[in-house]
Amino acid sequence: MDFSFSDEQTLLQDSIEKFIQNDYAFETRQKVVKEEQGFSSDNWKTFAELGWLGVPFSEADGGFGGKAIEAMIMSEQFGKGLVVEPYLPTVVLAGGALKIAGTAAQKEKYLAGIIDGSVQAALAYAEPQGRFNLADLTTTASKDGDGYVINGYKAVVLNGPSADFIIVSARTGGDQRDADGVSLFIVAADAQGVARRDYPTVDAFRASEVTLDGVKVPADALLGEQGTGLAVIEQVIDEGILAVGAEAVGCMEVLYKATVEYCKTREQFGQPIGKFQVLQHRMVDMFMEHEQSKSLMYMAAMRLDEGYGPEAQKAVSAFKVQVGKSGRFVGQGAIQLHGGMGMTEELNVGHYFKRLTMIDTLFGNTDFHLKRFGAL
Amino acid sequence: MKLGFSQRDRTLQAAASRAQLEHLALIAAEMPAEGESVADDEAFQRKCQALEVTLLGLEMLELRIRHEVESGRAARAEKLMLSIKCAELAQAIADLTLETLGYYALPFPDQVPGDNERPVGPEHALAALQSWLASHSSSGAEVSDHKNTIARVALDL
Which CATH number covers residue B39? Predict the structure, then answer.
């Protein structure tokens, strides 16, 4: 087993780490999330210039040919900085679907803009009644001349407010929860019949409820083969889980270390509270939860890089289960050891806690993935 | 790309828990419940799966430690963590095994050397009971000591 990074991987890790240390202070982030867009266009430009937006795409598509390990490395660092720029929805989710299922023409048309930073995107895969079941869709796409007409409603579309195009899952056949009959469509955000209700999320990202009312799209809007879109979404969501899970691992590291530092300086009864064994053991438990998550993060990334299939799916679900459990433990421990100020707006701790808690829900929570893990 | 599995990835400490978990699955498949077996019970399955997720993490941790040691680092905190977590997992598996036995978790007859009478209840019941007792005898002070050491070496407390 080799756990060392290649020189290129180390370089990638260092460059993001340096960016977060020098240019992504918590106070700056807090100013950015209060602005209307919710992230910094300047930062996004920097991401493009540094090549980060092209990491997961093949060299033929204008990227750098990175795989799951690179995605893991990047996301872990983004998690440490609590980065709000929409890397996940634009690059990992929408970009991921194009990477897996796009034709040469579709890749040329859409990936180039993602890689050079000029285009924002979103993946609209969830619906209110579907909970975490990716196949449970009431949105439909029917044949309409050469193209399709789409009707339906998509829930909590991450980066919806900024997206130039949205990849939408819809039924072209089958019953509401069938595996067959799911198709993906690339829909321009300003297409007639697309209506959005935008809002911030509790962890300071931006999302939308999207209504599609008689949205007409041409035949070449179909992404992948008609009726076989579920497999594409499943793979993209699993890659998304690796990304948010790695973010969570980064969040946990920051939290347990910040808690240790705080307990070394905060004094009670004439000594730093970090001298008390009961608190030391709590912090050791936080350290161990982080390590346990990190181990499964490596496993998920390595399995994904061996090839997508049941082994990889199982590893991803195991990782998600652990991250949900550990994230809650580390987050709550950090808040409790900081005292009431742990949840204040001013201190970063509460913001990491909120992100960790939302990551548990995103793409299926601990219970959902434990069940999936058992079924695979 | 580096970072990857190889064919010779075998664990020692975590492997013991793996064997214990596999044994539990065998017992659960034999214990009747609701016209089926305990292994068919969803609540039992969830508990088993949660333990398996923990085990997967510990297998990876053991391999990570080996990599650290081969690279010339001590990995002291990680080794102590592995001890603590494997002991906790052994207890959790032993607890669940006991649950699986139902009423036959209770009998603990005196053992007479050379006795050739059939044991009370299912044949694996007594061994499961013994390993449950053993798993809970080896905890307490040792875990506390290990945590004190981790606090010192990994957290500088």
Answer: 1.20.140.10
